[in-house]
């Protein structure tokens, strides 16, 4: 908040205090009577927060109010001595109440009613007497502690109230009761409203009275009274909380004031009153949420009085008044904002505080102009009595005098001298600085960064004038930092020059050097000569001599002395270091590593380029670069490309410095960063300035406009400089290993086999290597689990196979010698496997080296196995019948690109299947399958019992190896055969025994076994049908009864008649009765798959000497087909 | 008419500042510089509310007892600022607009010059002449 108090033209307290309705309370003995105390507290403490605000004051019963002035009947001969009386506002705020309330303890049924009635009346009378001549309202409150009046007794109370009113000469409306009980607060609220209404009527009457005066006034002599009366009405309206009416009257007062003829003698009074009325107007406007009106009124106010300076000798007074106007308005504005008024960037209190500061500056200048020579305060004090003037804004040496009277010239002169003397002692700078401070904080709030900067610069200037150079310099250097960003050269130069001035006054070697170096920058608008002087001054400083002061700066006599003192202080921190991140300058640097990474046993280059942008030669006696790694930082010295000491950089050229950068072994994996470039400016090292440039954020971004600079006319050097790429960090990688690792394998690997991989190492280093560790591990795909289905080992014959990685260690390997290792990989899943082979070793017993090889291996399936199912007649089937043998045909297809040798195969059957026959040797044993070839073997299998569910056949196991590998490397692969078939029940089993072939003309025996598999008796009809190719003997048609689990055998003797593949006589079975479980088609199917249909019959046996033609054997059913 | 005319680049660096009274140059630099606060505020406000994007005239930026400051922003964020005296009440908003249009077209001429580098301050004779005229009230 601005400091607007304790000064000339302060807003008086009675003006700034909030206008309350003033009500006096009497007859309350708060000290001795607890009931009265409670009532008083209820009135004063429990303030309501609505618009009705009342100011209570407790008057003792014998209080004497000031006597009222006699009423003036005519204004004809009255000449007012001033505009506003100083005591008037205070009178209505704190002295004369609008209502006096007399409290009196009296119950309706008080035993001493009559006595008390009279006492009450006398109290009322005494108060009335004290307020003689005033219209203050009087009210009486009876405090009643007794029980409430019973219903029906109202007549008595009404009568007593009437008599009391008569005795007290009181309007019955002004008599109140206050029962003292629990609801005190509620009663006081209601009383307060009643009092408030009385107060309103009092103020209304007052306003009417004042308005009534108007008719008596004339415009020639009573100008002041017009103002006064309107002001009074405004104020009274404010007391009765009628802001609109108050505002109207104040506005009229203001316009009447403007009609007053202003001369030198009453300028101050008019301005003071104008300020007060304006204050009221603005405050009311803000309170009514009409900020535009407030601002407009204030603008008008300033416009009207801006040029009303008054006597020239005391013009500072006018500036002080103006400054105060702005300041007070700013505070009002700010207060309104605190109460919720929104402000904007272009209209906020800061603007007014700034204006106030500006006027204070004018005031200071006026003071400098007028008060310089005043050294004596006149005696007697012409300003005596300043505090007890009757009117606002009058002069103590001629109070109440009208402008028409001639001034006492001597007294006037002395008084002016006294004012000037007083003004001289005022610390204007502090006022200005505090106003600027307020403005700055407001500018910050309302997003005016640039305005804020200007304000800060003004503040620094004021500090400079107040000779507080240190503070000024601090502010200026902050602003310099901000102005640098936007290239407002003129502003920046201005700030820089001011800062330099400060340094001349308050010596600081570092600050001077920093500023002088910054001044060399091309963006600073200074003459070349001036810049050169500054540069020269820098070197004077280095030699321990104070800088030459430019002519326009006045310095004290002890200039040299204070500078020498500062040298002593700065000597300890030599060399003088200037952080160039904080300055735009005449030098620009760029720095770069040669490579973004280099191997530990090699080195890279490190270069800096320095661009001289000023038009003078620059000597650099040393240049270093700070390179930092995560753990430490080192400083490297660089040598110029063209070596001279000191190195001189011509104007507008680029100098190049370089050195080589190498790393130690422990730095492997670290990243080095160039953090800063340090240049020693000067001829000799001990007389030089260290300029520290940050490598990261070069200030050149400030100075170089980024757009299209390359197209400028004289941009050759700039282009050259810009072309240099910056590479600020560089990582160290391990040296390259000269150990050759050759990996051989016969890929792809086959699923499940131990796949051998050969690793050949050869030492191509220049010395023997030792502690060689080869680590072979599986590369884990990101985010996936370790592959459990892949194994690695060195020796697959070993019993225990440890999980990967596997390690091979080797103590030593001489130069140019080599060694080989084989390791094996086995994967139980197809797909690609990646291996990492990491070889670490130590060269020459000191240098650690590492070589990493990656190996990808594809895993493929070696075989594919297909199972097919056939009946014994080699008809393909999809289901089997219990107890009926069938054939499983296994086809093994070789998918491997390599020829595979089958060692053995094995079909492991699962229940209920079993092999027919005891031993079952693989038919593929010792076969070799080439790519794409198929090996087939057949097994005769029997299902023991039926099964509803499809049964699986079992596991087919193949033991195999690659054809060219030794016998030990056998791999066993198992393939689960696909789920087969249902096994259906077969009630009968029919077999036919028949020789392999027959001869024409020679009989052959055939027998048919019919077996009942069920546990029931089955009856079937058998029918052997005739055939052209055979004659036969045996039962042709038969009804069979098959006992459970028995076999019935039918024997036939067949006599072939034709040769070739001939059809056998067809056997037919049909159920004997319809109730049987057997069905005809089921039996037909059974026969079809069980019995052979054809047989091969040879031509003749004549060669064997048999008579073919007539040889006939009779058929016999019992005959056992002997031939 | 105008007492100060300024052209400010898109990065808020001045390209051209000319004022009638050379003694007040620093003062005007500050004034124009401070006006950029309002320009930036208005530009960000315009960005939000999708008003007429073709309206380049920003209107009155700031007015003090002595001066009024008007602003104008091209589509390429080049800002024009004109300062007039507050006492000059005859100047209408439309006239200020016209002055900006004129300035814009002269500026466009300057930029069209193949030998002009957009990053450099404007040092065109024709441009100077137009601005001088503007300040003399001959437009």
What's the structural blueprint in terms of helices and strands?
The complex is a heterodimer of chains A (1123) and B (139).
Chain A: H1 13-16, E1 21-26, H2 34-44, E2 54-59, H3 88-95, E3 99-105, H4 113-130, E4 137-144, H5 154-168, E5 175-179, H6 184-213, H7 223-239, H8 243-259, H9 267-287, H10 291-305, H11 315-338, H12 349-371, H13 409-424, H14 428-445, H15 449-465, H16 469-485, H17 489-505, H18 509-519, H19 528-542, H20 559-571, E6 576-579, E7 587-593, E8 597-599, E9 603-612, E10 618-628, E11 633-640, E12 647-649, E13 654-662, E14 671-681, E15 689-694, H21 700-703, H22 716-723, E16 729-733, E17 739-745, E18 749-750, E19 755-763, E20 769-778, E21 790-793, E22 806-813, E23 818-827, E24 831-843, E25 847-860, E26 863-870, E27 880-881, E28 885-894, E29 900-909, E30 913-915, E31 928-929, E32 934-943, E33 954-962, E34 971-976, E35 983-984, E36 988-993, E37 997-999, E38 1004-1012, E39 1018-1024, E40 1030-1033, E41 1037-1042, E42 1047-1056, E43 1060-1063, E44 1067-1071, H23 1080-1090, E45 1094-1098
Parallel strand pairs in A: 1-2, 1-3, 3-4, 4-5, 6-15, 8-16, 18-25, 27-35, 37-45
Antiparallel strand pairs in A: 7-9, 9-13, 10-11, 10-12, 10-14, 11-13, 14-15, 14-16, 17-19, 19-23, 20-22, 20-24, 21-23, 24-25, 26-28, 28-32, 29-31, 29-33, 30-32, 33-34, 36-38, 38-42, 39-41, 39-44, 40-42, 43-45
Helix pairs in contact in A: 2-6, 6-7, 7-8, 8-9, 9-10, 9-11, 10-11, 11-12, 12-13, 12-14, 14-15, 15-16, 16-17, 17-18, 18-19
Chain B: E1 2-8, E2 14-19, H1 25-48, E3 57-63, E4 67-73, E5 79-85, H2 93-112, H3 125-136
Antiparallel strand pairs in B: 1-2, 1-5, 3-4, 4-5
Helix pairs in contact in B: 2-3
